Amino acid sequence: MPGPTALTGRSLVAGAAQGALLFADVGLSFWGGLDPFSGEVIDRHHPLSGEHLAGRVLAIPSGRGSCTGSSVLMELISNGHAPAALVLAEADEILTLGVLVAQVIFERSLPVLCIGREAFAALRGKAFARVEDGALSLFQQPPTDTWQAPASPLPSAAGAPSIELSELDRALLDGQLGKAAQVAMQIVLRMAELQGAHGLVDVTQAHIDGCIYTGPASLRFAEQLVQWGANVRVPTTLNSISVDQRRWRELGIDPTLGEPASALGDAYMAMGAQLSFTCAPYLLDSAPKAGEQIVWAESNAVVYANSVLGARTLKYPDYLDICIALTGRAPLIGCHLDAQRKAALRVELPDLGELDDAFYPLLGYHIGGLAGSRIPLVLGLEQRTPDLDDLKAFGAAFATTSAAPLFHIAGVTPEAMDPAQVLDPQAVLPLQRIRLEDLLVSWRELNSARDSRVDVVSLGNPHFSLSEFARLARLCRGRRKHPQVVLAITCGRAVLEQARAAGHIAVIEAFGATLVTDTCWCMLGEPVIPPAATTLMTNSGKYAHYAPGLVGRKVHFASLTECVDAACSATASGRLPAWLQPATHLESPAHV
């Protein structure tokens, strides 16, 4: 029998482990893609769908999608369903951070190894793997030796001497500002070291994604910080939590979820965060300005802040977000720097006819898959005028399939009004030409339902804006939904009150819609979704991707107009939009 294949890489988290190799060449979002209580892959679009991670060496190119992946991995480590080790093609801060926080709170860990894209391809077809710090051994069969993982102390979270520290940094690190701030600074510096940062930067505001309840570990982390006297140093907003905090009992939510999820929101407010509970903080009056250095988590919000607002943030993992909010200091790396905001891929669109609002989430979903972790420059929309809702939908779907924190659209997004400004003149960027047939493949992927029946219409992922409420009210006026269909909209409290004052909510409630605040569709399940419901319909590319795994229902994806029509008829038309039909495409004289 041939000997093992030996590879080396960069140890992101030290340790040793071995197990059956679970390999995929597609990134995996741990949140929405994994069950945090069992370790099963529930992303029904992923090649590992149905596999269980516990005790296996998971090899994926990187994470993708939600910033809450760190929280899910911490839950898995705490409940014994985590993989034995992680092997990555490229460094992933979200997953690495989940392991680091598990070290601090639970004193449990697993090795994380980054081996590079070229070496990663050698893992295909191997059955067994052993990780020992920076070394990886691959076997065709489980080895017959009596190897045991060596016992080793958990690494210190102390800061790296290569990072330049200010007086405030040293005071935080020395514990002069309290235990919570000290631990937070240790974690910030540990991540800065892993990211290769040489210094830190002041941030002006934070948006916390870690308030999503993924299990007991997420609540324990927050309550531990409160016990240590945590208090945020910068204005801080909170993402959607897992329940409508004011109405979860009225909505029939099980107290085993409602009580800890509500308590988690309270814990973050006890640290000084504002009661915002929205996944669209860019809709608040506190939205940052161009060039502002911030720390935002929640993948769609990060992408919107960077791409549409021109603010500066990384795609921060859950728990690193609150650590930075407690210190006011972030690693000076990535999209905080001009040079790291350049495009690494050009994407050229085909000729298209008249567009509806389903185009932008579909395009974002498709381009996210092409981009991977690369920042794309999209060419071909220069003569179009996508509005902020279109860009919101594009960014949310893009962040679902991509690990990149930023996109540029030539002639549309602020840094790419002159596309030359986001191109490195010394680099030759790959060009990806999208064909209409390619978009049709993604359309069919998002449309997983085969039955025309519609039981639930899901709107507001990300949270509805005031302009979306206005448009929905126009579509609903004088109509009434089918009595057997649930149409529910998730939104933030602030936007709901604006829409109510504008008269939109009265029309929408007369139509028969249900309004839910504080949480969003990625956390909603039964009974808001009736147990007997089998098919959902949505205009969200993000939710169309996640829903089959999260709630076990098939999905129709279409425009907002189609969604309202389906709410009235309880039937999806199944029509392709005109811009996606080849005949229309060929007849259209317009060139995008």
Biggest sheet, in brief?
Answer: 8 strands, mixed
Oligomer: single chain
CATH architecture of the largest domain: 2-Layer Sandwich
Spatial shape: globular
Query: Mean pLDDT, nearest integer?
Result: 93
H/I helix tally = 19
Helix content: 25-40%
What structural category arises from helix and sheet content? alpha/beta
Could you name the ranges where pLDDT drops below 50 across 5 or more consecutive residues?
156-160, 584-592
- The tally of strands reads 22
Spatial extent as radius of gyration: 23 Å
Arrangement of strands in the largest sheet: 1-8-7-3-4-5-6-2
Compute the number of structural domains: 4
What proportion strand? 5-15%
Q: How far do the termini sit from each other?
A: 58 Å
And the CATH topology of the largest domain? Answer: Aconitase, domain 3
Could you give a quick summary of the protein structure above?
By secondary structure, the chain is an alpha/beta fold. The protein is built from 19 helices and 22 strands.
Description:
With 592 residues, the protein is α/β, with parallel strands linked by helices. The chain has four domains: 5-139, 3-Layer(bba) Sandwich (Glucose Oxidase, domain 1); 167-339, Aconitase, domain 3, CATH 3.30.499; 342-443, no CATH class; 448-573, Aconitase, domain 3 (2-Layer Sandwich). The strands form five sheets. It has an eight-stranded mixed beta sheet with strand order 1-8-7-3-4-5-6-2. Helix 2 (69-79) links the parallel strand 4 (57-60) and strand 5 (85-88). Helix 11 crosses helix 13 (436-446). The longest helix is centred in the N-terminal third of the chain and has 17 residues, at 179-195. The termini are far apart.
